[in-house]
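Fill-in record for Adenylyl-sulfate kinase.
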Amino acid sequence: MSAQALLLSGGGGVGKTTVAQAIARLLTAGGHPAAVLDLDAVGQFGPPPQAPTAAPDSVPDSGPHSGPDSGLRFYDRLKARNLAAVWPTYRDVGARFLIVSGHVETAELRAAYTQALADCDVRMVRMLTSPDLVAARTRSTRGPDWDLQAALAEGATHQPIEDFTVTNDGSPAETAAEILGKAGWPVG
């Protein structure tokens, strides 16, 4: 069986990271080697490098998904490069399932992340959650700079690039099981 990956996407506060962890728990409980990677975690760097004549988002770097013509923002390129660097380590220690959580809003970004996951069958899930539930869930988990309206607007910018959608209105375990079923992955 070839390795498989899920890209969990959606706006801020929809539960991507929490559900990714729940998916991994279900898989590992069933004896299926799984790893989780949060794109926000592998993109934490700052400030972005400055080029003398270029805006931060067009600063070229080396490696896949790079250069001034890539169209990806600096942090998106950084996340893709780090995903490409980490995935082989997980694969080499036996991971057959990878769950990646992050905001993937364009076809170009999905392609960059898919390319970073060499030798892996990649499916993308768009997670949806009602604004009221996002507000309730994030009230105590986000800092004072959290902008609910900006997060909701960000979630609305998605191009229709997912393989399927899931509404995250239940427990993380319930949503995880639904995603596993729709993806055709083992549910434990």
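KEY FINDING: The first strand starts at residue 3 and ends at 9.
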